[in-house]
Amino acid sequence: METTLSIAVQKSGRLSEKSLDLIRSCGIDFNADSRVLKARASGFPLDFLFVRDDDIPQYVSDGVADIGIVGRNEYDESGMDLEIVRDLRFASCRLSIAVPHGFRYEGLESLQGKRIATSYPRILSGILEKHGVEATVVVVSGSVEITVEVGIADAIADLVSTGTTLKMNGLEEAECIYRSSAVMVASRSMPAEKKAILSRLLERIDAVMLARHKKYILFNLPASKLEEAAAVIGGMKSPTVTPLMDEGWVSVQSAVDEDRFWAVFEELRKLGAEGILVMNIEKMTE
Ligand code: ATP
Ligand code: ZN
After folding, report:
1. What are the φ and ψ backbone dihedral angles of 96, each rounded to 5 degrees?
2. Residue 166 sits in the same domain as residue 193
3. pLDDT in tens, 125-151
4. Is residue 42 in a domain?
5. Which ligand is the nearest neighbour of the Cα of 164?
6. Quick one: CA dihedral 212, 83, 178, 145, positive or negative?
7. Whose CA is nearest to atom 13 of ligand 1?
8. Strand locations in 16-100 (E)
């Protein structure tokens, strides 16, 4: 029987479409209409397993699937020991502390002795511990943003991509404590034939990701926000920074991944970026 590599992908949710798009752009075809639980690719020895994202690290760890595409947050929260073979750079989000209006947040120390609700107790506890903050972590599996209003928590730690949900629930994003994007995880114990298939798949993924459109972005920014802006832009050695006549302001330029573009744009606006100029890049090398 032909050796195949099995991949676990999210059945339906924020990761599904982009995971499948990525594999399709690697020239691997499969029937997505009959997306029940399993599917076989044509033209490449790949089997799909469509599951809930929370289960992906466990399945790969147990050998139910050889590899998987999952949010880094779910992987870290699972506590499993897998190899992260690629950061796929989609489904970017951050785990942020959010507090109700009137809560004076001055860093993680403000959470000392408080109750913090989250669906990511392992990640949150790790961060609190690292900062020597003792707090009660209240574990909830969903609707974290209502826990303050209903009185079971004083603050929350939840995934954010735009912050609208927080605002709608009377909360303010106080601090980003962790960043995530989709990653490809692989079992640490895979037979050589499967490893060879994975190498072929990764070669294609790398080619696709390199060729993905980037945008060139230019904007003016208060110099004090430079570090935060560099973190938002991410993935670059460093943006190019030029001083402006107006002291306290700088002009920043950098390439930005197209699929992260709007998220970056909104973040930069929040940081006070002005005169944002966006250009297509015709050709580019690493
Ligand atoms: P499932 O039914 O598979 O358990 P889910 O509801 O747990 O799905 P989704 O909401 O589809 O999961 O999110 C999947 C992943 O998408 C998250 O674990 C995270 O890595 C990423 N993500 C990106 N932006 C956000 C966001 N704003 N809120 C939550 N997750 C996000
Ligand atoms: Zn889930």
Report:
1. -125, 150
2. no
3. 999 999 999 999 999 999 999 999 999
4. yes
5. 1
6. positive
7. 14
8. 38-40, 46-51, 67-71, 83-87, 93-100
Q: Report the CATH number that the domain containing residue 74 is assigned in CATH.
A: 3.40.190.10
- The residue whose CA is least distant from atom 31 of ligand 1 is 93
User: How far lies 15's CA from each of 18, 51, 241, 250, 270, in Å?
Assistant: 6, 11, 34, 36, 26
Domain count, the chain: 3
- Do 205 and 80 share a structural domain? yes
- Residue with structure tokens 């920074």? 241
**pLDDT over 80 (residue 282):** no
Dist CA 40 CA 45 (whole Å): 8
Ligand nearest to the CA of 12: 1
Asked if 25 and 79 sit in the same domain, the reply is: yes
Per the structure, the complete domain to which residue 236 belongs is given by 214-280
142: CA distance to ligand 2 center in Å? 9
In whole angstroms, give the CA distance from residue 234 to residue 51: 30
| Token pair belonging to 83 | 């190899």
Query: Both 198 and 223 in a single domain?
Result: no
Q: Is the pTM of this model over 0.85?
A: no
User: For 53-57, 152-156, 174-178, 206-210, which range has the lowest pLDDT when averaged over its residues?
Assistant: 206-210
Whole-number Cα distances in Å, 248 to 82, 153, 188, 203, 226: 45, 40, 50, 45, 11
> Cα–Cα–Cα angle for 155, 101, 139, nearest 5°?
15
Residue 8 beta carbon below 6 angstroms from any ligand 1 atom:
no
